[in-house]
């Protein structure tokens, strides 16, 4: 984890929010959906099975924690979690809160509409809503 490098595609399209024990938590810079990404801080890994057993378990723990907090805070209809990696080869796990009224529902969000970046006020609002809840759990 010491020499971890975030893939340039992920870096370009997201805002770094928090360092978790295993993962970086990113906010995808698209205000059309509450869309977050966990990236394990392990180089040269494309798929979950390539992580060692302890890191697989930690990824599941961090993903479950994030999913629960996102659903509590955003009150979504469905949590979509996916590790696709067809375009970006670095292992990353998408967490997207879905609503029946979102513009892509019920289809997957990828490629349907151009991304619409957040403004600074929107980013700060999301940080204020999520980071205290995440840090509270991490400090336990």
Structure report:
- The chain has 140 residues and is of the alpha+beta class.
- It has one domain: HIT-like (HIT family, subunit A).
- It contains 3 helices and 5 strands, in the order H-E-E-E-H-E-E-H.
- The protein has helices at 8-13, 53-74, 120-138; strands at 14-19, 23-28, 35-40, 78-82, 93-98.
- The chain has a 5-stranded antiparallel β-sheet with strand order 1-2-3-5-4.
- Helix 2 packs across helix 3.
- It is globular.
- The mean pLDDT is 95.
Count helical runs.
Answer: 3
CATH superfamily: HIT-like
Extract low-pLDDT stretches: none
The pLDDT mean sits at 95
Strand order of the largest sheet: 1-2-3-5-4
Please tally the β strands and state the result: 5
- Rg (CA only): 15 Å
- Which CATH-level-2 architecture? 2-Layer Sandwich
Structural class by sheet pairing and helices:
alpha+beta
C-alpha geometry:
globular
State the helicity in percent bands.
25-40%
CATH class: Alpha Beta
Distance between the termini: 23 Å
Reported by name, the CATH topology is HIT family, subunit A
Count of structural domains: 1
Helices and strands, in N-to-C order? HEEEHEEH
Features:
single chain; 140 residues; alpha+beta; HIT family, subunit A; 3 helices; 5 strands; globular
Could you give a short description of this structure?
The chain is an alpha+beta fold. It is built from 3 helices and 5 strands. It is globular and about 40 Å long.
């Amino acid at each position: 984890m010491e020499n971890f490098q975030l893939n340039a595609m992920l870096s370009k399209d997201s805002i770094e929010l928090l360092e978790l024990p295993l993962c970086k938590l990113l906010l995808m810079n698209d205000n059309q959906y509450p869309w977050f990404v966990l990236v394990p801080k392990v180089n040269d890994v494309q798929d979950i099975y390539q992580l060692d057993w302890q890191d697989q378990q930690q990824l599941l723990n961090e993903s479950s924690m994030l999913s629960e907090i996102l659903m509590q805070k955003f009150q979504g209809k469905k949590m979509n979690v996916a590790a696709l990696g067809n375009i970006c080869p670095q292992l990353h796990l998408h967490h997207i809160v879905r609503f029946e009224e979102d513009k892509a529902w019920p289809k997957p969000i990828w490629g349907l509409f151009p991304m619409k970046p957040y403004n600074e006020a929107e980013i700060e609002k999301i940080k204020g809503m999520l980071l205290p809840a995440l840090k509270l759990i991490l400090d336990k």
